[in-house]
Structures are given as structure tokens and as C-alpha cells.
């Protein structure tokens, strides 16, 4: 089987990882909206946990892709590493949380969004239409720019922006996951897909 076919097999088999990333984002967004008496520290630890988990899943998918298509981009792996680093900084540096949390969130959103767009354009001809991932990246960049331009927004305003961002990202990732899972209907090597 050629490398592209192997990649399609691997992506479809691991569609649930993208779905899980979407579910995590939706949970994070709902928590930002509905947890009463949300504090800055609780927001920080929730954001850090999301970054760590999302980074681990992104790195896993990135290495799976590179293993099957050696010429493909490093962007997913870099995105995952960046998310993990940001998550660790926020978790391990509570003294700088109050002053710089908004900038950490904004920086993460812009860099991760740019890397998502790179990944989408690198893979669009190899797997399936990647516009959901590109849309996630664009929304992420816009969100980061808004926070950079208005860093002194009140806590509840930040929570509403973060919550909305996370919900939109989560829905887009879920859409991408189910779109990828649907590939098995149009691309169907029996020895692989019959077991999914």
C-alpha cells in the first residue's frame, strides 16, 4: 500500500483523537460559561490542563503523520510542543499568572492557529478537504489578536470570549473528526476499514 493510503488509514483509525480534542474544547468552553465564582487561578489551571492534553494528542497525530509521509510538515508536532510548554508555564508559575495570563492565552491562540493553517494546507491534497482545520486556525488567530488588543478586559468578559472561542473550536474539531471518519465510505480497503 502506498504512503498516502497508509496515511488515510491511520487518520481514519485515529479520528476519535480529533473528536476527543473537540470534546475537551467544548468542556473547557462550557466551564468558562457556567462554573460559578470562576477565579483567575481556576481559569489558569483549566486552560493549562487543556493545553497539556491537547498538546499530547496533537503530537501523537503529528508523529503518526510523519511516520507515514516523511516529507510532510512538522507543524502539528510544533503545535503540540508549544501547547505543552505554555501549559507547563501556566501550571508552574502561579506568581506571574495574574499579570500575564491573558497574554499567554493570546500567544498560544495565535501560534497554534498559524500552525493549524500550515497543517491544513500541507495535508489538503493528501487526505481530505482540510478547511475545518484551517477555519479552526483562523478563528484561533482572530481570538488571540482580540485578546492582544484588549488585554485589560474584565475577568467575566475574558471568560465569555474564551468560552465562545473554545465552543467554536470544539464544534469545528468534532466536524473535522466525523468528516474524517466518513472517509471510510469513499475509501474502503477491506483489510483495514472492516475492523473500524
UniProtKB/TrEMBL annotation:
Annotated signal sequence is none
- Example of a GO cellular component annotation carried by this entry: plasma membrane
Does the entry feature the keyword Membrane, yes or no?
yes
Look up the domain of life of the source.
Bacteria
Q: Which UniProt keywords apply?
A: Membrane, Transmembrane, Transmembrane helix
A Pfam family matched in the record: DUF308
Tell me yes or no: is Nucleotide-binding among this UniProt entry's keywords: no
Q: What is this protein called?
A: HdeD family acid-resistance protein
Q: What is the lineage of its organism?
A: Bacteria, Bacillati, Chloroflexota, Ktedonobacteria, Ktedonobacterales
Amino acid at each position: 500500500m502506498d504512503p498516502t493510503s497508509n496515511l488515510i488509514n491511520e487518520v481514519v483509525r485515529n479520528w476519535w483523537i480529533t473528536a476527543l480534542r473537540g470534546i475537551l474544547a467544548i468542556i473547557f468552553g462550557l466551564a468558562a460559561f457556567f462554573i460559578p465564582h470562576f477565579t483567575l487561578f481556576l481559569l489558569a489551571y483549566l486552560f493549562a490542563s487543556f493545553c497539556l492534553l491537547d498538546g499530547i494528542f496533537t503530537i501523537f497525530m503529528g508523529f503518526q503523520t510523519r511516520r507515514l509521509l516523511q516529507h510532510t510538515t512538522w507543524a502539528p508536532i510544533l503545535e503540540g510542543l508549544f501547547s505543552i510548554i505554555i501549559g507547563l508555564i501556566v501550571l508552574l508559575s502561579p506568581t506571574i499568572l495574574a499579570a500575564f495570563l491573558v497574554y499567554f492565552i493570546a500567544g498560544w491562540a495565535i501560534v497554534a492557529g498559524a500552525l493549524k493553517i500550515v497543517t491544513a494546507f500541507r495535508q489538503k491534497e493528501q487526505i481530505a478537504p482540510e478547511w475545518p482545520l484551517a477555519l479552526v486556525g483562523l478563528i484561533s488567530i482572530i481570538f488571540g489578536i482580540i485578546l492582544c488588543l484588549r488585554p485589560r478586559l474584565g475577568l467575566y468578559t475574558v471568560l465569555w470570549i474564551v468560552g465562545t472561542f473554545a465552543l467554536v473550536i470544539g464544534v469545528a474539531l468534532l466536524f473535522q473528526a466525523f468528516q474524517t471518519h466518513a472517509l471510510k465510505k469513499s475509501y474502503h480497503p477491506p483489510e483495514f476499514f472492516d475492523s473500524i
